[in-house]
Amino acid sequence: MEILAFGVQSDEKPMIERAFQGHHEVHVLDVFLDEDTALIAAGHEVISTSVNCDLGAGVLENLAAGGTRMIAQRSTGFNNVDLKTAERLGLTVARVSYYSPHSVAEFAWTLAMAVNRRVVRASIRTRDFDFRLDGLMGRDMHGRTAGVLGTGKIGEAFARIAHGFGMRLLGWDVAENPACRELGMTYVPKEQLLAESDLVSLHVPLLPETLHLIDGAALRTMRDDAILVNSSRGGLVDTAALVAELRAGRFTGVGLDVYEAEAGLFFLDKSLEAVEDDTLARLVTFPNVLVTSHQAYYTVDAVSQIIETTVNNVLDYTEGRRSENVLVPRS
């Protein structure tokens, strides 16, 4: 069987080809799946997709009409998949339930420290042989408060690093994590966490109830000198509201590895094109904001786990097995 993999980065290509060797033939594409590219999948029973592929109702209809029966998503998140339509069409959908939480947690801290210590600004200056320290003053993290919204595996890994810095830990989640409790974390209402934290980091999934979890009211609850980091899903933050607060001169720094309208932008080279997204264009102009292109997960360790799980998901489908990774079972 030939499997078609959409949205594959150049670094991932040899890893995916090696992983499928001896099992199935795989053909990798750097283009993302959407209504324009769905026809490419015609004749392929199994396809693999990335988090920025469009798996809405229209795309799924086209896939099913072309003979696709199984979709192996190479991510934990699946907010880009219309699961009800997939079930109606008889499409099996699987995801990667788990991969290294350290990749994302460590990158969240990379963003936090980069904006706190003005690393990007300092790097730009020194490339121009400007070695002044004006405007580069940061703060010790030791003794300050870290607020962790979402204390699952990634949130726990983030909290462990914060604990290593000697920070006070506040947490918010629908269920408490005993391991975070052992670190000294205190679980509090979201509003209290936002009001008391010097650093707020988001580690919750994007669901209807978490869309714009950090909205205008939440942002106004935060300290003027706080740091906000989002390495989870862009839709957790109301970006227009964030821009309004930044224009008012608030926040020491904001580190964003995700953006709510990133589909069609992130993972692509748009450097020679006119920027049509006015909100993103404004966001990246703030000197205290660092935006990266959804790369928190992008380590050899995490990507290897993602690909290995994807291969196993495909083998489970072809051999009639079912695992915890299945979102829509085989009909």
Automatic annotation (TrEMBL):
Gene3D superfamilies: NAD(P)-binding Rossmann-like Domain
Location of the D-isomer specific 2-hydroxyacid dehydrogenase NAD-binding domain: 110-296
Top EC class, one word: oxidoreductase
Entry EC number(s): 1.1.1.28
Domain D-isomer specific 2-hydroxyacid dehydrogenase catalytic as annotated: residue spans: 9-327
InterPro entries reported for this sequence: D-isomer_2_OHA_DH_cat_dom, D-isomer_DH_CS, D-isomer_DH_CS1, D-isomer_DH_NAD-bd, D-LDH-like, NAD(P)-bd_dom_sf
Protein name: 2-hydroxyacid dehydrogenase
